[in-house]
Amino acid sequence: MPEPNHAEPDERALIERFLVQRDEATFREIYCRQAPAMYRIAARLTLGSSVRADDVIQETWLRAISALPRFRHESSLRTWLVGFAVNVVREMQRPRAEVISFESLTDELESGEPDPALLAERDLTPQLRELPEGFRTVLVLHDLEGLTHAEIASALGISAGTAKSQLSRARAAIRSLLSVPTSDGARRNP
Questions:
Q1: Would you call 96 exposed, middle or buried from its count of C-beta atoms within 10 A (0-12, 13-18, 19+)?
Q2: CATH number at residue 128
Q3: DSSP strands (E only) in 2-131
Q4: pLDDT tens by residue, 131-153
Q5: Which of 18, 29, 46, 97 has the fewest Cβ atoms within 10 angstroms?
Q6: Residues 92, 11 within the same domain
Q7: Is residue 47 in a domain?
Q8: Enclosing domain of residue 34
Q9: For residue 28, what is the domain's CATH number?
Q10: Closest by CA position to 59, among listed 30, 97, 92
Q11: In terms of domains, do 73 and 131 share one?
Q12: Nearest-angstrom CA–CA distance, 65 and 11
């Protein structure tokens, strides 16, 4: 059995130490562990805008640090932070967002699931712009960031079943957006 690594405190211990000491070194350690994933998520949710992603990260941390005493460790810190980031992105987009209900989308989209590995390798920013916010968020968190349905549900305050349903519809919408018309009017995948 491998020995535990005592040189690197676990997440709970770091959080507790920060809450007691409120020292910069402990905050930096928490931040450095979470920042790469949080920035990647923010950049994808803001469709590649580094300036907006920076704003999302800053606001996420401001809100999270204020709420940290209420963090109950029912999810990972990353999942908890994702919830803040998603809410910040939603608030940033609210004045411009077009509300599209999931029910209003047609059910005529092609069936079959795209390979998440292919989605991650391809620049989907133009197609992600076309997705309703809920679809985009679930697709980014699951297929591009690897969060589980349970983690997504926890971060977004929805059920795991809703996360699965939105992911399925998001994949169908992406599939539709990725297909291109041929000269004879048929559609083919690039």
A1: exposed
A2: 1.10.10.10
A3: none
A4: 888 898 999 899 888 899 999 99
A5: 97
A6: yes
A7: yes
A8: 7-96
A9: 1.10.1740.10
A10: 92
A11: no
A12: 14
